[in-house]
């Protein structure tokens, strides 16, 4: 008998094992929902799949009676544009600050402690300030995401730069490279895939901040909708919205992972390619 | 071109690494540096690279003070991490030329690029790597990566080549190939080489001059109080002809006892003088 740590599933078994928890979760939901509905047909807590399906039909495919727009798409578009803006701005800031801190000792001495403290500020606690300063519009939501994840990305990028072997920096100097040339030919190309990895890791927090901001002050967006219909115990809408958000987050993660693989073939198998 | 090291010391706080190191090395010498671990031979190499500065004394190249940071006149090959993982073999060798010719972008295009490519290819041919031009370094074996590192350093035509245990991680067979390669390149280019090695046979085989680093004074209560110096400086080649010192070599390379090795070295030095 082999040790358990040495027994590996075949590809087919692996796939089945991976799907199993999803099926079990769905089954558990179905059974619980049936039980509750059998007791009280008007139960709102665990709606049946058919009534969820009807709700999806209503908000994802039919124009809203009040506005004439299809709610899910409007919500998705506004949430994604806020998210993209927030994450994009954070990536740019994090990239520049991280590379500068990682390469130039003077910049590191100057900025690194500040970024470290900034990353400890709980962003949600700043939300009231953002609403006061930037109003209830788009800016405050984007700024919340930026405050939440840009310091993390900057710190991560700085750390990745510092992790590049010192030998490489010496070697580049013996090839006659200036600081600028070292940055654009040695540091940046090697940091790009690591930046994308940092962005991947920060997508979770980014969604969190987005939904929090939308829940508190917004007129559209996925987070807004969920918190709006909560008042009517509208689980038929909330559950598919949550699944949809999860799916979007998963696809973004997957997209970034594939991008890294295709755009940076040399990065394959490097330690931090999680 | 000659390198003159004048009474150089290196200390980290209370710890003395090197003391009273003085040396004169002429153009085209191949100095192999041996000594126990932690005796400062790598520190010595780092000072020649200007990665570190001596705390006392001076290093002069052609009578002038050495620049305070690494530069293109001194090439280097480390035991590991000498090549850039995000560049292909060809791009790794071209990098030095691209950096020189394109200050802002560090990249070439058109005919300048073609020319650099051709030059890089001929350099790769001399180290036997043409067949893997478009591979990334991670796909190469350890020996091939070191060949690449050597090619990358030599393309800048440095006057001095510094090797920090370059073959330490290689298999014995591959190592012998690398020895032939480095000796060929040394004879062709007339470059001055400093090489740190743990392998005293390798040091005898490659070098034209053997430098032994050791502590002259020793304080058992405070081992860091005294630094190492060059205790033996043995010419292995004069006017192109090798001196083999067969008997002494045997003692030096075989004997386990430091005292035996030291007396053999002493003999060598006397004989050489």
Automatic annotation (TrEMBL), chain B:
List the CDD domains.
ABC_NrtD_SsuB_transporters (cd03293)
The GO terms describing molecular function are:
ATP binding; ATP hydrolysis activity
Q: Which SMART domains match?
A: AAA
Q: Which residues cross the membrane?
A: none
| Protein keywords | ATP-binding, Nucleotide-binding, Transport
Instruction: Identify the residues that the record assigns to the ABC transporter domain, covering every copy.
Output: 3-240
Record PANTHER family: BICARBONATE TRANSPORT ATP-BINDING PROTEIN CMPC, SPERMIDINE/PUTRESCINE IMPORT ATP-BINDING PROTEIN POTA
Full protein name: ABC transporter, ATP-binding protein
| Protein source organism | Mariprofundus ferrooxydans PV-1
């Amino acid at each position: 008998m082999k040790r358990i740590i040495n027994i590996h599933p075949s590809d087919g078994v692996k796939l089945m094992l991976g799907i199993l928890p999803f099926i079990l979760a769905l089954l558990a939901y179905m059974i619980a929902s049936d039980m509750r509905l059998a007791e009280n047909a008007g139960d709102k807590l665990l709606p049946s799949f058919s009534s969820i399906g009807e709700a999806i039909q209503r908000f994802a495919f039919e124009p809203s009676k009040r506005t004439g727009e299809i709610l899910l798409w409007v919500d998705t578009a506004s949430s994604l544009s806020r998210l993209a803006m927030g994450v994009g701005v954070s990536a740019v800031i994090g990239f520049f600050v991280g590379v500068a801190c990682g390469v130039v000792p003077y910049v590191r001495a100057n900025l690194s402690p500040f970024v470290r403290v900034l990353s400890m500020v709980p962003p949600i606690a700043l939300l009231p300030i953002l609403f006061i300063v930037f109003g209830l519009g788009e800016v405050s939501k984007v700024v919340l995401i930026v405050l939440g994840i840009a310091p993390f990305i900057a710190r991560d990028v700085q750390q990745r730069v510092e992790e590049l072997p010192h030998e490489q920096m010496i070697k580049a100097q013996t090839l006659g490279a200036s600081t600028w040339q070292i940055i654009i030919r040695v540091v940046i190309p090697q940091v790009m895939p690591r930046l994308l990895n940092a962005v991947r890791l920060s997508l979770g927090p980014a969604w969190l901040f987005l939904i929090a901001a939308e829940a508190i002050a917004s007129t559209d967006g996925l987070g807004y909708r969920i918190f709006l219909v909560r008042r009517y115990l509208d689980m038929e809408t909330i559950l598919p919205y949550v699944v949809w958000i999860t799916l979007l987050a998963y696809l973004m993660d997957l997209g970034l992972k594939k991008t890294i693989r295709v755009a940076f073939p040399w990065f394959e198998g490097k330690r931090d390619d999680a | 071109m000659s390198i003159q090291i004048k009474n150089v010391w290196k200390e980290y706080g209370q710890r003395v690494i090197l003391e009273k190191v003085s040396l004169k090395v002429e153009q085209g010498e191949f100095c192999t540096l041996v000594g126990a671990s932690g005796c400062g031979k790598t520190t010595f190499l780092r000072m020649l690279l200007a990665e570190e500065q001596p705390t006392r004394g001076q290093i002069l190249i052609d009578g002038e003070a050495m620049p305070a940071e690494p530069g293109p006149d001194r090439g280097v090959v480390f035991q590991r991490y000498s090549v850039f993982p995000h560049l292909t073999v060809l791009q790794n060798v071209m990098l030095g030329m691209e950096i020189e010719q394109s200050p802002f972008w560090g990249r070439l295009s058109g005919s300048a690029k073609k020319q650099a490519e051709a030059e890089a290819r001929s350099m790769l041919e001399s180290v036997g790597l043409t067949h893997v031009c478009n591979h990334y370094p991670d796909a190469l074996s350890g020996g091939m990566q070191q060949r690449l590192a050597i090619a990358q350093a030599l393309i800048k035509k440095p006057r001095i080549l510094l090797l920090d245990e370059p073959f330490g991680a290689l298999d014995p067979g591959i190592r012998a190939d690398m020895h032939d390669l480095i000796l060929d390149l040394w004879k062709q280019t007339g470059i001055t080489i400093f090489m740190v090695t743990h392998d005293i046979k390798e040091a005898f085989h490659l070098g034209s001059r053997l430098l032994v680093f050791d502590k002259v004074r020793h304080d058992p209560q405070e081992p860091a109080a005294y630094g190492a110096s060059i205790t033996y400086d043995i010419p292995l080649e004069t006017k192109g002809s090798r001196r083999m010192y067969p008997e002494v070599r045997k003692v030096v390379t075989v004997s386990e006892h430091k005292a035996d090795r030291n007396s053999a070295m002493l003999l060598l030095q006397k004989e050489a003088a």
